[in-house]
User: Which sequence fits this backbone?
């Protein structure tokens, strides 16, 4: 198939960009032609993943929006206009069978408009934050209803499908993300002390991700260990001040990495720290799924619910999440101290994968074909 993906994409940091990267890679490796339309090069420096990462597949082409726009009053980045213009340019130059948009705003809106102009069917996907910040609050409600109702298919998951079924019968349920087991698999880099890591954005709402709790817990631990914060964002300076004010001594700060480098990063991590208890968006990042596939144990809180992945992977006994009580800092500190004191070296347990990356890619291709048929039927 000939697919136009309108989406976040590296060097943008985050789960949607990473998911688009792996989807495009999977489609390209199966021989499909992929055109990615993105505003990734315009992302704020705080969320820009550094490095030079050329596209390695001959079946994938990346089309970036125009980098600069004339000054105007009142000023706007005009991302919808810039993305729409580039999408229409791609459609005019290349035969496209389907437009796939990930995240409702601005990409879903762009897919809707491009489809109206060109007649090419589009599908719309969502993340977690766009539902919480826009859809569930009724922001741009009339516009987004049109985006959803005019889509050839809306791709959702079991958790969120009912949000769309009142507007359209054309809802397809897929797993939100399945890592490529060729890359995300149990392997490790030997080291003598346990490595704990937080991996993700450090934005204004870093306390929602319990980064303050991580600092509070680890600031009282004296045993040998390594604590790494891999991330960046507009809350980084405030977070760094919190670290200094709370006397956290043993830690390392690293920039976020390109999705291609995430498997290697996880091979250097013994425990992934990921908490959702204080986050108003009760969801989890792709990094949690990638840690499951990599055999990296998860340290989380009692709010984390991973039931939706039970049908896709069977977590081995050695990889069961370790649950901390974040409301009891001293108790959580004791639990972490026990992990460190019982450390016997790196290990990885294989989880049983019941739904692999090829299944995931084929399921997405099936959605594309269904969307094409739906459009022709109209």
Assistant:
């Amino acid at each position: 198939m000939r697919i136009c993906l309108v989406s976040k994409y590296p060097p943008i940091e985050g789960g949607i960009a990473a998911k688009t990267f792996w989807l495009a890679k999977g489609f390209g490796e199966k021989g499909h032609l992929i055109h990615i339309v993105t505003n990734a090069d315009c992302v704020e420096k705080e969320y820009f993943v550094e490095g030079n990462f050329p596209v390695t597949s001959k079946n994938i082409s990346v089309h970036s929006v125009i980098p600069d726009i004339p000054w105007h009053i009142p000023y706007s980045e005009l991302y919808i206009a810039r993305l729409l213009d580039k999408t229409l340019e791609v459609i005019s130059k290349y035969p496209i069978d389907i437009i796939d948009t990930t995240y409702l705003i601005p990409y879903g809106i762009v897919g809707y408009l491009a489809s109206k102009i060109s007649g090419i069917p589009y599908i719309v996907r969502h993340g977690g934050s766009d539902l919480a910040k826009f859809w569930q609050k009724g922001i741009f409600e009339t516009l987004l209803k049109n985006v959803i109702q005019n889509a050839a298919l809306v791709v959702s998951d079991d958790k969120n499908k009912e949000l769309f079924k009142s507007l359209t019968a054309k809802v397809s349920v897929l797993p939100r993300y399945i890592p490529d087991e060729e890359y995300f698999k149990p392997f490790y880099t030997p080291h003598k002390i346990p490595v704990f890591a937080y991996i993700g954005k450090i934005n204004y709402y870093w306390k929602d991700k319990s980064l303050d709790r991580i600092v509070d817990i680890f600031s009282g631990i004296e045993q040998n260990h390594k604590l790494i914060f891999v991330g960046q964002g507009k809350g980084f300076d405030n977070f760094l001040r919190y670290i200094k004010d709370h006397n956290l001594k043993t830690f390392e700060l690293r920039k976020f990495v390109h999705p291609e480098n995430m498997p290697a990063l996880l091979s250097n991590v013994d425990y992934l720290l990921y908490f959702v208890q204080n986050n108003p968006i009760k969801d989890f990042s792709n990094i949690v799924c990638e840690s499951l596939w990599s055999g990296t144990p998860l340290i989380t809180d009692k709010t984390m619910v991973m039931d939706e992945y039970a049908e896709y992977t069977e977590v081995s006994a050695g990889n069961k999440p370790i649950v901390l009580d974040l409301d009891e800092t001293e108790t959580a500190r004791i639990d972490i101290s026990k992990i460190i004191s019982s450390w016997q070296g790196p290990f990885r347990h294989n989880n049983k994968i019941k739904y692999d990356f090829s299944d995931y890619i084929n399921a997405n291709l099936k959605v594309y074909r269904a969307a094409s048929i739906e459009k022709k039927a109209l």
Notes: The radius of gyration is 21 Å. The domain at 2-174+357-377 is CATH 3.40.50.2000 (Rossmann fold). Residues 204 and 235 are 4 Å apart (CA to CA).
